[in-house]
Every structure is written in structure tokens, then in C-alpha cells.
Design goal:
By secondary structure, the chain is α+β, with helices and mostly antiparallel strands. It has 19 helices and 17 strands. Pfam families: TLD.
């Protein structure tokens, strides 16, 4: 009995019997560090590559690391190599790290890390280990993440002529005209204003470290794609309005940047119409096949154009006509003179009220000339154009007496922090599912039919004789006729 209890306490008896089953094998593999299996294979391949190039024995060179793991992003490879070398205690003058150092640092990267730690890690990597990070280094981090997202953009790689302007707005906002700031401050700023930016880059690095050995074994180049990467940036639907007079103004670089800042509600992938949201026979599917099935049955979020002042005309009535009855989250872009641009993210449908509304995912941002989140939270949105006795226009902010953003009822002036700017354009994009847009269009068709019915008024001869329209026509010199009653 005593021996039996001692075996149970050590856990050796039951674990031996469990390890013979498939589930037990998984447990045993986890105990030995499942994540180290691809890392061990990758380390051996990189050591072999370094030896073949005559750069040393049982070491991994910086050139081999960047060349074979990040062929399309050598600057990322060099940053990650230097970071791993510094954390491993390797001197700056050395261009090699040992295989054991590589395994140890790679295992840390593959461990479960909170977002705060991930952002801090990559800011440190791009600052070359310094306690301060420069404008140029942060710009490089932003540009690299943008390039990675655009390489995986649905429908093929994309370019944007305004990318430098967009990224410079981020840098200028974060640095406040300083040449360098502390790494800790920069990490906190990114978490506050672009919380989903760096985790996207980390996802790609983890994917490379865990799968690159397969491509290298087969002598194939390491790809830039990673599971779910193509779902990270929303797709702008083309305007199908036959009366459109020009393209919408929203550049793809701003779409990408907003996707890294807004809550997931606005960029949530939609279900493929032929796909199934719940896989059949889940017990018979592995985790990898389940993920592949789920990714294969989803579309990236599609932002549908609802209203553009350049196409539909500037005015409150035009705004209400095209935006109301869209039952889904929306993004409203307000542009003013002097190059200012703001975004109002509404997580529920627009409606007129004398009270502030909106849920926790509502957000107010400035995009240009400085990118930053102004406010987040519930009950920060206000729309009133018809209710008497209450302020008119569109207001955004948590303080009703002093809103952060205010658009007057004439749609002529936008005021931010008390500074007025003449309004130049307004755009509204729907971020809901395709069903939300279809329901809005169906409702508008019904409203048009109802309006047509109201226009056709059948009058009897007796009603027409006393109708005021007849009197007005006769005053204008128009002869009217009616059948005399007997």
C-alpha cells in the first residue's frame, strides 16, 4: 500500500499507462516542450547553413538568420537576431550566436506572452536594446508592419501613395516634436493608441520560427503568409451607385492603421456563405485542421460605402438619408481645412436623440495631422437635427457641456477642442455584415415605394371641386374642369 501511494504521489504509475494512448502522447509531448521540436530542427538547419558558408561551427550567423528566415524582410531578421543575441549575453562585436542560445531565446518568443510584454519586446528590438527609441526606429517598425499586412492583403499586395503621410502622423503624435523618447513611454503609447499593431508582427515572427524548418528542409523559400494574416485588414467595397461622381477618399493605409487601433467589432471577419460556423464532428478533427477550416470559411471584414459628401452632396439631410437605418457599426470621417481629419466610430446604428448614446466600443480618433485616440467608451455620441430645445448637430465626447468634437447642424464647421475648422468632406463606411447593408437597401426601396404611393391621390369630382389645388391653378390662369353633379 505504501509503495502504491508513493507511486501515485510521484505520478509515474498513471502517466506511464496514459502515455500509451493518443491523448497521453500529447501530454507527454507537452511535458518535454512541444514548441521546442520545430526549434531544434530549425537550429540544426541554421547551424548547417552557417557551416556551409564558412562562418563557423555549431553557431548561427546573423547573415544566415536573416537570409533564410526573413528573406523579404532582412531588417526584421537583423533586429530579431540582435535582440536574441543581447538577451543571450552575446557581445555586440560578435556576429554569431550558439545553437543553445538560439533555442533558449526562441523558446521565450514562443511562450504565451501578454500584449504588454509583446509590445515592449519589439520596441526594445527596434531600439537596438537602448533605453530610448528614435523617430526613425519607430517609423521603421510601423512601415515593416504595414508592408507585412499589405503583402497578405486580400486580392493581392497593395500600395498606398499616402503611407508616409499616414505613418508620419503617428510618429509626430507619439514624439511631441522630440527626437527620441523612452522605450517604456513608446510601449505604453502604442498600447493605448494602436493596441493591435505589434501583436500582428509577433504573430508573423512566431509563425516563421515554428514552420520555417519545413520550407528549408524542402529547399523552398520561407513565405510571408501566416494563418489569419489576410483577415487583419478590412477590404473596401467599391461603390456601385450609378450616380457616383468620383472615388471615395479613404486610403488603404488609413484602413490598415484603423484596423490596428479600433476594437475587433469593426474588423471582425465575416462567415463565408458556403462555410459552416460550427464544424461537423469536432471530435474527429485535429486542432490544425479545425483552424484551417475556420480560416477557409471566413472573409475579411468588408467596409461598405454609405455616404460621401463629394458624391451625394454636403448636408444634414443627405447624411441622414444615406446613414440612418444601417443597423451595424459605422465609421464617420470628418475632414476640414488645414488638413485635419477625424474619425467617429459608432458601434451601434445612428439615430436622433436628445441623449448621448453608444456602447463601450464607441471611439473618437484624430487621424491627421496627428494620429491618436481622443476618447473611448459608452455614451459619447450625440445626433440631433430636429428635436427642439436641445443642441443641434453631431457631438462626440464624454462631457456633454464641452464635447471633444462638434459638427454644427449646417454641416459647415467642425470644432475640435474649441478650435473651429471649415468642413470640406464627410464619409461614412458601414463595418457590419453584408446583411446589414442589404437590409438597409431593402428598407430604402420600401420607403421609395411608399413615397410613390403617397404622391398618387385619387380624388372624386366632388372632392376636386373644393380642393385648394384647384383654386391655386385657377389663380394662375389654368382652366380646370369637373363633371357637374346632377
Amino acid at each position: 500500500m505504501g509503495n502504491h501511494h508513493s507511486h501515485s504521489d510521484n505520478g509515474s504509475g498513471p502517466r506511464k499507462s496514459i502515455s500509451r494512448t493518443s491523448s497521453g502522447a500529447d501530454i507527454k509531448e507537452q511535458n518535454h516542450g512541444t514548441s521546442l521540436v520545430p526549434i531544434d530542427k530549425l537550429a540544426k538547419i541554421l547551424v548547417h547553413k552557417t557551416s556551409d558558408e564558412g562562418s563557423g561551427q555549431n553557431v548561427i550567423s546573423a547573415d544566415v538568420f536573416s537570409k533564410y528566415l526573413f528573406p523579404q524582410y532582412p531588417e526584421l531578421g537583423l533586429k530579431m537576431y540582435n535582440y536574441m543575441a543581447k538577451c543571450g549575453g552575446v557581445s555586440k562585436s560578435s556576429n554569431h550566436i550558439s545553437a543553445s542560445t538560439f533555442r533558449q531565446q526562441a523558446d521565450k518568443l514562443l511562450s504565451v506572452l501578454p500584449d504588454e510584454r509583446i509590445v515592449e519586446l519589439y520596441v526594445k528590438a527596434f531600439s537596438d536594446g537602448s533605453e530610448e527609441v528614435t523617430q526613425e526606429q519607430v517609423f521603421d517598425l510601423l512601415m515593416l508592419t504595414y508592408r507585412l499586412a499589405m503583402e497578405n492583403y486580400p486580392g493581392g499586395p497593395q500600395t498606398c501613395l499616402q503611407i508616409h503621410h499616414t505613418l508620419q502622423a503617428v510618429v509626430d503624435s507619439a514624439f511631441h516634436k522630440k527626437l527620441a523618447v523612452s522605450s517604456g513611454y513608446m510601449s505604453n503609447w502604442l498600447l493605448q493608441h494602436l493596441p493591435r499593431l505589434v501583436p500582428l508582427l509577433h504573430r508573423y515572427v512566431v509563425h516563421v520560427l515554428t514552420t520555417a524548418y519545413r520550407a528549408l528542409q524542402e529547399k523552398q523559400p520561407v513565405t510571408t503568409s501566416a494563418p489569419g494574416m489576410e483577415l487583419s485588414t478590412p477590404v473596401l467595397e467599391k461603390n456601385v451607385d450609378v450616380d457616383s461622381k468620383g472615388p471615395y477618399l479613404l486610403p488603404v493605409s488609413q484602413v490598415w492603421l484603423l484596423a490596428t487601433s479600433l476594437p475587433p467589432l469593426y474588423t471582425m471577419p465575416s462567415q463565408h456563405p458556403n462555410g459552416s460556423s460550427s464544424p461537423t464532428q469536432p471530435n474527429c478533427m485535429s486542432a490544425q485542421s479545425l483552424i484551417a477550416k475556420m480560416l477557409g470559411s471566413t472573409y475579411p471584414s468588408h467596409w461598405a460605402p454609405l455616404y460621401s459628401s463629394d458624391q451625394h452632396g454636403m448636408g444634414a439631410n443627405r447624411f441622414l438619408h444615406h446613414v440612418l437605418s444601417y443597423r451595424g457599426p459605422t465609421l464617420t470621417f470628418l475632414r476640414g481645412q488645414e488638413g485635419v481629419e477625424f474619425c467617429v466610430a459608432a458601434d451601434s446604428e445612428w439615430h436622433e436623440s436628445n441623449h448621448y448614446w453608444g456602447c463601450e466600443n464607441s471611439c473618437i480618433l484624430q487621424i491627421l495631422p496627428l494620429f491618436h485616440v481622443i476618447e473611448r467608451g459608452a455614451k459619447i455620441l450625440y445626433l440631433n437635427l430636429t428635436i427642439r430645445g436641445y443642441p443641434k448637430g453631431i457631438h462626440a465626447g464624454s462631457n456633454p457641456s464641452k464635447p471633444s468634437l462638434k459638427l454644427d447642424e449646417s454641416f459647415g464647421m467642425i470644432t475640435y477642442s474649441g478650435i473651429p475648422y471649415p468642413l470640406t468632406s464627410v464619409e461614412v463606411w458601414g463595418c457590419g455584415t453584408s446583411k446589414s447593408r442589404e437590409q438597409q437597401l431593402e428598407l430604402k426601396k420600401w420607403e421609395v415605394k411608399q413615397a410613390e404611393k403617397q404622391r398618387v391621390v385619387k380624388l372624386s369630382a366632388a372632392e376636386w371641386a373644393d380642393h385648394p389645388d384647384r383654386y391655386l391653378l385657377e389663380l394662375g390662369g389654368r382652366q380646370t374642369y369637373n363633371t357637374p353633379s346632377n
